[in-house]
């Protein structure tokens, strides 16, 4: 997922009550006084909780690029609360940007 030399990261993908795939690495959501999992909330609730916690994937991966080691990407994404679609888009934009930069350098 990170480069052509075989660096990959594992993502924990869960689905919300309304079946939206999200990346969140823990079973229990960070809600004091309640033991709730991702499947107990709908996407809107999950998203609101992510915003309150500052777990936006765009902020957490800021400064990472194609030269960043897989461990840095994993740490940033694993601590996020984001829809799978957004996590994949972040990686796709970075890969396209890196590929385009390489093409112009030739």
Low-pLDDT segments? 95-106
Count of domains: 1
Helix content: 40-55%
Helix-strand sequence: EEHHHEH
Shape: elongated
Strand order of the largest sheet: 1-2-3
> Over the alpha carbons, how many angstroms does the gyration radius reach?
15 Å
Total DSSP E strands: 3
First-to-last CA distance: 24 Å
- The total count of helices amounts to 4
Structural class of the secondary structure composition?
mainly alpha
Characterize the main sheet.
Answer: 3 strands, antiparallel
Strand content: 5-15%
The overall average pLDDT, rounded, is 80
Notable characteristics:
single chain, 106 residues, mainly alpha, three-stranded antiparallel beta sheet, 3 strands, disordered C terminus
Structural account:
The C terminus is likely disordered. A three-stranded antiparallel beta sheet has the order 1-2-3. A hairpin with a 5-residue loop joins strand 1 and strand 2. The longest helix has 22 residues. The protein is mainly α and 106 residues long.
Topology, element by element:
Blueprint: E1 13-15, E2 21-23, H1 43-53, H2 57-60, H3 70-78, E3 82-83, H4 84-105
Antiparallel strand pairs: 1-2, 2-3
Q: How would you concisely characterize the structure shown here?
A:
Helices cover 43% and strands 8% of the residues.
């Amino acid at each position: 997922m990170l480069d052509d030399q075989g660096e990959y990261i594992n993502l924990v993908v869960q689905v919300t009550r309304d079946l939206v795939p999200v990346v969140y690495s823990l079973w229990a959501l960070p809600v004091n006084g309640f033991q709730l999992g991702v499947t107990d909330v709908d996407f809107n609730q999950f998203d609101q909780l992510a915003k309150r916690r500052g777990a936006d994937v765009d902020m957490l991966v800021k400064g990472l690029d194609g030269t960043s080691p897989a461990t840095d990407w994993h740490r940033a994404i694993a601590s996020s609360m984001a829809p799978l679609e957004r996590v994949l888009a972040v990686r796709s934009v970075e890969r396209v940007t890196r590929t385009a930069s390489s093409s112009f350098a030739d």
